Amino acid sequence: MIGAVSGSSYVEIENVSAFTADMKNSTTTSVGGLVGKLNDGFLNVGNVTLATADGNDLGSTNPKVPANDTDQVEGHGGLIGHLVKGVLRLHGETNLENQKITTAYNHVGQIVGFNENGLIYALGNGNGLDADGKGWSLTRYSGTDRGGSDIGNWGAVIRLGGNLSEGEDGVFTFDEVAHTVTINSSVENETKADINGANQFAAYALAFEFSMTDTGKTEALNLKSKVDRDQDQTVNLTGDVKLTNTGIIGIGKDNVEKGKAHQFKGTLDGGNYTITLDIGAAYGKNSSGDDYAAGQLYAKRSDQRDTHYSLALIPFARDITISNLTIDGNVICKIPKTVNQEVKDIKYPAFVAGAIGLASGKTKFNHVTVNTKSSVTEEATDAKKLLAWQGGFLARCEGSTLTFTDCTWGNTASLEDKRNTDNHRIGGLAAEVMGGCTVTVSNTTLSGSITSASQSNANVGGLIAVSRGEDSNSKAKPSTIEISELSVNGETVTTSSAQQPTAVCWATSGRIRMLSLLRMPE
User: Percent of the chain scored above 70 by pLDDT?
Assistant: First the structure.
């Protein structure tokens, strides 16, 4: 409908039905059902029905063979192709039942193809309108060949109406006159935040993502206070945070954008409260967790065109201490049917964990309990297998020290890879520790469950799956693992492999010093 929107533009689209024509265009063109490229501005969308004409696949410049070029497009999406910055606000019925998108790539999404630094939110949970006709209902493309995340490269649609709200006490405020959204972040000196509840957590997380991002000021999106990601952060919880059905993944983007990760560094003190995650959950009208491309996050790594590959409370961290916190909820990772990754290319896995996806520097966990249920599944059994590392606390450590003190991997926690492949590593505390790291585990309990469907060479460890013995540049560097007062209390490890994992590490290069191991009766 609209090729591009820029500047301080406000565009409202309501009660519209439209067909998207066959887009025979170059890979540098942005294509969307409503807007090709939103450079800046505000797009307010309610009650739209969109369909691709003649059965064409919107995700491709070559509708006949979409896999040939989809990995290269600038941005193709059901509503917006490329969102540079600004705001997309959704309400009413978004009907994409005949808007065909079948591929999962970093710049192709069912709602937005490529999101650089835009806020995407809806006034409901997407499952249907309220009794008074308000809220948001999302109907996705109905074909069995449907594929991909709602947003191609990072993040999810932020959904209001349950644990999040709009307004002065909500996560953000919408100014109907100025046509702007202000994130209600409260951060002292850009480094310190006290957080009580989902609204305050989400506001901090969004400020963390959108601060220091754009070279120029956006017209539609404002922050009450900014976060300086270059400085150590001090975040304290003063109440529980429940992120169920919100679309908030965690603190920081789940993908590396423009070659630089949004790393959290500093301290997160839970104050003995609980954060409940809901990463990659299915939602939408007539959708369930068993459906393909129903709101789940599809991880991919290939030629730096990555997508949704670090799923955790904190996707990327450096020099971090997490204390006095319980992490609950779900972390769900989907592997798309088209993955271009060689089996032995272990440099570039996806990361799935309760606390941290990828950590560097010094990492400390003090009095932390993880009860999250994590899983990895794939769309097709004949695709090249994406490497996926899963850890109860941490997926990969590339740092110098990793310390667990008075921690618990709880009896309701679980890690599961449902794929019949050996391309995974699963560890109760961590999936992989790179070389040169000193790991210290003291007064810690393992009670969760690990399930691997691998038929051979299952890299699974009750404590740590693999201690690599080399750094990320493949230079030999042995690690040291020192364990004292480790309790194995009901932990279960189930694999289809004839090779059974050990209680501590499946593969290691370096030194393990075990001072005491206590296996308690179930």
Answer: 85
